[in-house]
């Protein structure tokens, strides 16, 4: 293992650990699963350091992550896990009651709206806002043109925004 | 302009040229400007909302990954970071007396790491070593590995279940409640036996050489080890020549019998402590610790142990004190580390019980909060020793001018929950310093993150600090540093006589605000350093609800910093506030690393207890690295069990090892530890021996001269009626050399009601804990019995702590639905 390669790995971990976890989390919904998936991604990276193009690191990582997440969903679709967190008393809620709830509410709303977008738009938006990738990187992951990414994101955002505003406008949500 | 260009512009995705073009368009159109603004705002919302989950890998996962990639060197670093005891031993080659844990992995580390260039005998490839290292880190970290996925292979790679070589994968889910800190930390790990043993065998020549080269005497011990008959519950000791035997029944029994004391071979220690027997003088003896021969000898123990691990079948390593909390898994979802209660250990195999003292009290306050809120605490939130030590006891203080900074007192009585058993209480009282306290240089590091705004958090911090400020002496100094919200120095170090100024600054603290990059903790230490009082108390007091975002994000780096600063004389105490505190264990760890204490402040009265009534105990350390080792007399005691202190258990040889960190004792503090004892004339639990007689070991111990120490009845007058000897080691707060106190204890069996009230009360608190934990050792105990004991033991209770406890018993009784 050369120093360069290990440096690359370090940098990748530094830069993409959190985006990847958020991205995986958005796919699989469970933090622990997302962590496992991302760990696998980095394991894979550690084995592929010699063959990965540092310039195309992000697309590589997100592609692997997406594949792993898809595998994971396929594998676990019919298995319901007992969640360890539920065993913890007063797990959430008390730390920052108002703030957190509000936050989660908006975030949860947006996430659920996100799932209703057409797949390509959804994917592009996830990579843009959840994983913080650039159009160029997204186009690499999605194997499409930068222009098309711009198109997908533009339409995705507009759709999301409309739906979200409609949701906000509902009187029942005012409380 | 295409409509999507506006979005791209809002997201800053355009090239400079395109950007200029879009902006030119914007200039000309109000409508476009509005649209651009809206798009930008919505994009910001999306970024904030969708990207706001700051989730990362667990520290263990990251370490494992790093270790996997960079090979031995990085693995080695990861070790040092993990701060595990064996690592400590490893990182300082030639270090005398560092314990080496008996596990295959440890062995691999040790050889692999001690000399990275070491030429592995049968080419166990670096990767394997590295993966083994990684695994070790993980295990030390307490995340249970996915057992069946890891196979050692002689070829030198580690195979994962899913076929990905090179790294041990840390599973976060489903195992997340596994203990990090209890003495029996890990389930027996089913290392693939065949391959483990083949590694063992391959490693053998190297080991032998290792043992030999370390010290010639090592061989003596090794030889002794070989002829020793009963390896007992510890699962055996070194037999360099014994081939690994996958079906070795000893090994199996060792896996089944959890044991609280030294995981290492008892034999070397046994023979070593023989020398100590002539200190049975019947009184309290004070001896210098240097005991160089002893600690040297212990090292042979290590050599033995290393060899021991050859067969790869030993019991799992226990986390010993240096790493009591090792590594608290920092998974944010985990609140309490599982406690695996100490089990009964047979004296024949584990004559020594060693642990570090602990003056933390947080668990009691936390349990109280649960009960007062109408729910039973989770069992793992109930740490027996912290319940017991919550209460001050009236032990006799050391005489004025006495050399020892504390007194030691031991009592024995019948067990209230299992009448055939005995309970021994070890009580330690630190000397009171009265008004002679040296000046204090205190820096309060206060979490002012938004979450602290609840009334039982920041406002309570402010009121507690105000109370403390009122106690200050004129030549004390106080500074206030905040973090998380707006980090900065809220009050520069100010003399205690300027009370009004200090209190005004405390009252001006506010939660919330923007986050600054500066490191709160470094500011705090800098402030403490700036006004360091050479002969005084220098302490940073961290007040938080568990948000440890003090400016250093890596827990390892934080622990390292705290350890370093503590060595430099600035200690750290942690005051935990509020609910939903996810970092119980981490906070305790930090306080331990900082030579300080961790208290949980759930109310103003608790704040008063910690910061006013017991201020000296909280602030003034009178002895550090206080360790207790009890040697039981096998002619009187058959088995024993340490109640609580699960995360404080030390290896026997750690006792004499002055490098081994242990607990501190503050002025006026009392520390109490209880043992449950089964005497030779009492039946074992379930009427069955803990371990069956060993089939392959010589039956008659007397035939073996080496066994003399263990054989019953050494014919020395006055010793056979002794139950045990309690030994303590401690260092002066600024000292590096430990001192030894020995207290022999006579065998006696008074009824509990004939013992000091404090003893009865401590027994009641212990019983309370056993019932709350629903311990398998609770015997016939009932809440009613606990209540009666507590009332009998209540005695004087000027501050009302004990009265409150009796109320808690009733609450717990009501909630548990048990009689």
Q: What characteristics describe this protein?
A:
heterodimer, A: 175 residues, mainly alpha, Rna Polymerase Sigma Factor, Chain: A, Arc Repressor Mutant, subunit A, 2 domains, 7 helices, B: 819 residues, alpha+beta, Immunoglobulin-like, 4 domains, six-stranded antiparallel beta sheet, 25 helices, 15% strand
Describe this structure in words.
- The complex is a heterodimer of chains A (175) and B (819).
- In chain A, 72% of the residues lie in helices and 0% in strands.
- Chain A is mostly helical and 175 residues long.
- Chain A folds into two domains: 1-89, Rna Polymerase Sigma Factor, Chain: A (Orthogonal Bundle), CATH 1.10.1740; 96-175, Orthogonal Bundle (Arc Repressor Mutant, subunit A).
- Mean pLDDT of chain A is 74; it is low at 78-102.
- Chain B is α+β, with helices and mostly antiparallel strands.
- Chain B contains 25 helices and 19 strands.
- The termini of chain B are far apart.
- The radius of gyration of chain B is 28 Å and the shape is globular.
- Chain B folds into four domains: 3-50, no CATH class; 61-287, no CATH class; 345-433 and 623-685 and 720-816, Gamma-adaptin ear (GAE) domain (Immunoglobulin-like, Sandwich); 440-592, von Willebrand factor, type A domain (Rossmann fold), CATH 3.40.50.
- Chains A and B meet through helix 1, helix 2, helix 4, helix 5 and helix 7 of A and helix 1, helix 3 and helix 4 of B.
């Amino acid at each position: 293992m050369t120093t360069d390669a290990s440096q690359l790995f370090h940098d990748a971990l530094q830069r993409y650990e959190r985006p990847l976890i958020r991205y995986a989390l958005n796919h699989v919904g469970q933090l622990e699963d997302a962590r496992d998936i991302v760990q696998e991604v980095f394991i894979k990276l550690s084995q592929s350091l010699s063959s990965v193009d540092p310039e195309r690191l992000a697309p590589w990582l997100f592609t692997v992550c997406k594949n792993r997440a898809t595998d994971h969903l396929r594998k676990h679709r019919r298995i319901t896990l007992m969640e360890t967190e539920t065993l913890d008393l007063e797990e959430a809620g008390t730390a920052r009651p108002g703030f957190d709830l509000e936050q989660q509410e908006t975030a949860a709303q947006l996430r659920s709206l996100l799932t209703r977008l057409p797949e390509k738009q959804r994917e592009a938006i996830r990579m843009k806002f959840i994983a913080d990738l650039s159009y160029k990187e997204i186009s690499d992951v999605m194997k499409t043109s930068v222009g098309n990414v711009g198109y997908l994101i533009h339409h995705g955002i507009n759709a999301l925004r409309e739906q979200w505003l409609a949701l906000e406008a509902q009187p029942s949500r005012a409380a | 302009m295409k409509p999507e260009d506006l979005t791209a512009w809002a997201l800053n995705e355009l090239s400079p040229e395109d950007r200029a073009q879009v902006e030119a368009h914007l200039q000309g159109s109000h409508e476009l400007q509005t649209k651009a603004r809206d798009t930008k705002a919505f994009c910001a919302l999306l970024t904030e909302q969708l990207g706001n989950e700051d989730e990362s890998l667990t520290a263990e996962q990251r370490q494992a990954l790093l270790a996997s990639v960079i090979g031995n060197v990085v693995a080695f670093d990861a070790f040092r970071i993990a701060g595990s005891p064996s690592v400590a031993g490893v990182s300082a080659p030639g270090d005398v007396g560092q314990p080496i844990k008996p596990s295959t992995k440890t062995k691999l580390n040790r050889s692999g790491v001690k000399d990275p260039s070491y030429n592995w005998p049968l080419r166990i490839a670096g990767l394997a070593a590295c993966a083994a290292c990684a695994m070790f880190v993980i295990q030390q970290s307490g995340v249970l590995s996915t057992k069946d996925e890891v196979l050692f292979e002689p070829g030198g790679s580690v195979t994962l279940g899913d076929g990905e070589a090179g790294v041990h994968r840390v599973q976060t889910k489903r195992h997340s409640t596994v203990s990090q800190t209890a003495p029996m930390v890990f389930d027996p790990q089913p290392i693939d036996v065949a391959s483990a043993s083949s590694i063992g065998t391959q490693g053998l020549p190297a080991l032998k050489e290792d043992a030999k080269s370390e010290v010639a005497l090592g061989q003596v011990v090794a030889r002794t080890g070989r002829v020793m008959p009963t390896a007992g519950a510890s699962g055996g000791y070194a037999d360099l020549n014994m081939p690994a035997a996958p079906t070795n029944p000893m090994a199996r029994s060792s896996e089944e019998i959890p044991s609280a004391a030294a995981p290492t071979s008892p034999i070397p220690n046994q023979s070593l402590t023989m020398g100590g027997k002539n200190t049975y003088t019947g009184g309290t003896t004070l001896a210098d610790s240097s005991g160089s021969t002893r600690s040297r000898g212990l090292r042979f123990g290590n050599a033995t142990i290393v060899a021991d691990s050859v067969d790869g079948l030993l019991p799992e390593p226990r986390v010993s004190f240096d790493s009591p909390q090792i590594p608290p898994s920092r998974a944010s979802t985990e609140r309490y580390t599982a406690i695996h209660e100490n089990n009964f250990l047979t004296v024949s195999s584990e004559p020594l019980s060693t642990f570090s003292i602990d003056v933390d009290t947080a668990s009691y306050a936390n349990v109280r909060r649960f009960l007062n809120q109408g729910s039973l605490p989770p069992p793992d939130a109930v740490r027996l020793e912290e319940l017991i030590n919550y209460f001050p006891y009236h032990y006799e203080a050391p005489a004025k001018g006495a050399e020892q900074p504390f007194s030691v007192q031991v009592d024995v009585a019948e067990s209230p929950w299992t009448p055939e058993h005995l309970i021994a209480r070890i009580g330690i009282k630190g000397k009171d310093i009265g008004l002679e306290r040296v000046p204090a240089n205190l820096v309060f590091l206060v979490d002012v993150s938004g979450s602290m705004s609840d009334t039982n958090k920041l406002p309570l911090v402010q009121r507690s600090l105000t109370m403390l400020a009122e106690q200050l002496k004129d030549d004390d100094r106080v500074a206030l540093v905040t973090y998380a919200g707006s980090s900065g120095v809220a009050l520069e170090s100010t003399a205690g006589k300027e009370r009004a100024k200090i209190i005004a600054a405390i009252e001006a603290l506010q939660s919330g605000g923007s986050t600054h990059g500066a490191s709160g903790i470094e500011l705090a230490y800098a402030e403490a350093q700036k006004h360091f009082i050479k002969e005084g108390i220098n302490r940073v007091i961290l007040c938080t609800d568990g948000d440890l975002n003090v400016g250093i994000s890596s827990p390892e780096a934080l622990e390292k910093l705290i350890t370093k600063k503590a060595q430099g004389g600035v200690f750290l105490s942690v005051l935990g506030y509020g609910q939903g505190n996810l970092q119980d264990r981490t906070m305790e760890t930090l306080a331990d690393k900082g030579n300080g204490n961790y208290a949980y402040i759930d109310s103003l009265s608790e704040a008063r207890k910690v910061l006013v009534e017991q201020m000296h105990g909280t602030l003034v350390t009178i002895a550090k690295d206080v360790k207790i080792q009890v040697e039981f007399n096998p002619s009187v005691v058959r088995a024993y069990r340490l109640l609580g202190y699960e995360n404080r258990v030390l290896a026997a040889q750690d006792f004499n090892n002055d490098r081994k960190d242990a607990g501190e004792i503050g002025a006026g503090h009392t520390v109490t530890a209880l043992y449950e004892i089964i005497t030779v004339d009492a039946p074992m639990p379930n009427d069955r021996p803990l371990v069956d007689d060993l089939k392959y070991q010589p039956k008659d111990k007397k035939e073996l001269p080496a066994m003399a120490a263990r054989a019953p009845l050494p014919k020395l007058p006055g010793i056979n009626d002794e139950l045990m000897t309690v030994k303590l080691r401690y260092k002066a707060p600024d000292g590096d050399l430990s001192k030894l106190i020995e207290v022999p204890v006579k065998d006696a069996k008074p009824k509990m009601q004939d013992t000091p009230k404090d003893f009865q009360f401590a027994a009641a608190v212990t019983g309370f804990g056993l019932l709350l934990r629903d311990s398998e050792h609770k015997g016939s105990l009932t809440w009613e019995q606990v209540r009666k004991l507590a009332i009998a033991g209540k005695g004087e209770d000027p501050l009302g702590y004990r009265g409150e406890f009796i109320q808690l018993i009733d609450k717990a009784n009501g909630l548990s639905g048990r009689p």
